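Researcher: I'm preparing a figure for a lab meeting and need a structural model of a single chain. I don't have an experimental structure, so a prediction will have to do for now. The sequence is pasted below. Please return the structure as tokens so I can convert it later.
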Amino acid sequence: MGIKTPEASSRAARNRMRAVRRRGTKAEIDLREALASLGLSFEANRRPLPDLRREADILFPEEKVAVFVDGCFWHGCPIHGTQAKANAVFWKEKIERNKKRDADTNERLQQAGWVVIRVWEHVDPTVAANEIAGVIAKVKSGRLRPTVLVIE
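Model: Understood. Here is the structure written out token by token.
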């Protein structure tokens, strides 16, 4: 039995929610373009582990690096996350579930030998791409073990 989504508080709210993309967001696309401009080869929207029903936004399978671009509202950004006024209890619980799922994903991937990188959507994509490139170089040289990094 799933959580019942409440009715939208207004037509405008419903239209905003319908427009939200699950993948291929502007932040994801901008980061992919910045990574490609650095000559990095990656895959998009792939499961790092076959038995994990979660996809990384950007995946470097050979290096075992999974990148997730987290939306400030959806993942509770400490800087830009906002609280919904309408249906506040539902949204607070939803964001907490998202944060718990993110933590579980981080733990499972790290235990499986992956480096997990979480990038907040507000981060400049060029800055994030340069940091990711540095992580990839460290992984390739053996100077970085499985861990979770946050680019904020």
